[in-house]
Amino acid sequence: YNWCTSMKVFFIGFGQAGGKIVDRFIEFDNRTNGSSFRAIAVNTARTDLMGLQHLNFEDRVLIGQTSVKGHGVGTDNDTGAQITFDEIDIIMNAIDRKGIGDTEAFIIVSGLGGGTGSGGSPVLARHLKKIYKEPVYVLGILPAPEEGRLYSYNAARSLATLVKEADNVILFDNSAWKNEGESIKGAFDRLNDEIVRRFGLLFRAGEIGQLGIGEMVVDSSEIINTLRGGGISSVGYAISEVINSAPVEKDRSFFDRIIGRKQIEERRPEDKLLGEDKTSRILSLVRRAMLGRLTLPCEYTTTSRALVLVAGPPDDLDRKGIEKAKSWVEENIAGVEVRGGDYPAQSRYVAAVVLLASIADAPRVTNLLEIAKETKATSERIDEENVLKLDESIEPLFE
Ligand code: GDP
Fold first, then answer.
1. What span, in angstroms and rounded, lies between the C-alpha atoms of 353 and 95?
2. Residues within 6 Å of ligand 1 by CB
């Protein structure tokens, strides 16, 4: 059954956002008795590493001790990149110590607008690719505009470098997920839940649970093949309540814990009408996942490859529905490769995850690149933000 296990992922949380999100992935893996995820966190700031709750202490790696003495690099991503370059061995040793085992993919998680993760991630991606044959993906967090132009500028530079170094960059846009009137910091916990829910489900697909494996199992090679075009990707998600299933035993369903009751979207009238028809319900759920709020809002019609995952009680998973949903996705994206399958999980919910890989048009990314150019043009006026130092507009962090 080797071919049908879930993806073995090695996470590297880089910087504050990256560390916190990876900490959540480990919590998720622990709570759900998984063993698919390994992780370390890397930072130049000691307090950020100390604040993590689920990673072992030996898996928290402090770099730049001589230069910044555990105080971080602020928003200076050039320094973040330089320290990472100089101390890459410390990071690689930590990865070795943890053990690669049967890792199938590396995922570097980082906020692209700051200093440590923004500057360090591209350097680490390049180095990992040199040493290992496994793909290196980045789960990158885009800053909200209110964080200031410097964050946008940093994110644009980091992103420009990452798309060259990593095998794929999957983005989550903080600004698309923050509620009106909510502070960005106040939103972090909620946003991190949204992130872990989507990617946790995607990367655990294919596991052999109490309910066995799916009829149309999604294995790790299908995720890897979907992402193989590189560039930038985005993820959609939707859930609905199971209609005619027996209630599941409380606390036994790991799936319920991921999704959580509060996350239920209001059922739309069309879902009620289709309630008896499993095939149409699955099609409608997948449509909602793709047409609803994506991790990175984008022009989904420009997607090259896609993967559709439908998880829930076996009774509610319908092969025909998944096939129809795959065809529907295929009709609506630029490419023709759409993979997909099911993931049996004991739950009161059915969830759909749609991975839209290698998209060609995302307004937020275009906007970030524009801000970066303007910032360069007006850098004298915002000198106090320390932008002058970064002399090339959206030049990569390094060549
Ligand atoms: P670094 O430590 O220098 O890498 O920088 P940070 O990770 O503190 O910040 C970089 C970006 O990540 C900023 O745009 C923050 O808004 C964002 N960020 C920081 N913490 C979190 C978090 O917990 N969740 C999310 N979604 N974004 C965060």
1. 30
2. 15-17, 20, 110-111, 113-118, 141, 143, 147, 151, 174, 184, 188, 191-192
